[in-house]
Amino acid sequence: MFIVIALWLTAAVAGAVVLTRSKSTPASLVPPAPREVLPTGSTVRLAEDRPTVIVTVHPQCPCTRATFTELQKFLTRQQGKVAALLLFVQPEGEDASFIHGALWDRAGQWPDVQRTIDVDGTVSKRLGAHTSGTALLYAPDGRLLFRGGLTVARGHEGDSPGAERMTVLLAGQRALSTAPVFGCGLENEEGS
């Protein structure tokens, strides 16, 4: 009986470690383009009168709800000082139902937020984003100001270094220009 209990406890602890590690391990950031500007020929249109935050979205990723909550809080705090563009990635071969759902509808209710479909993640890849929840803050002239995530862990809401750093940058102060990104790979059709 002791062996069974010991094996059960070992399995439970190992499972907890794996789950904790998965939730708290950020995606790796691919280095931005050396010039750190919006790629030439990009179909992305930045606001001309204020910075724009671009966020990549895998609509089937369970972590995206937390990203949306944190983005909505950030935009509310900024009160019109920043525009937002959400790139909803639609993998090749998927129909519109992959994109159009609760997250698409939720984002459509926010002021100053533009939604666009990024077929096969083409635009996201050009921006160097390979993970859902990657936030890129651009100045109106196309300079990249910040690149990172908006959540503290996968699928977890709460104040994050990413939102703090963007807030500091928008106030005209110096801040680190990156933060960890927690989310699903944009190439993953299942969203996990």
From TrEMBL:
Please indicate which superkingdom the organism of origin belongs to: Bacteria
Q: What is this protein called?
A: RedB protein
Q: Which organism is it from?
A: Archangium gephyra
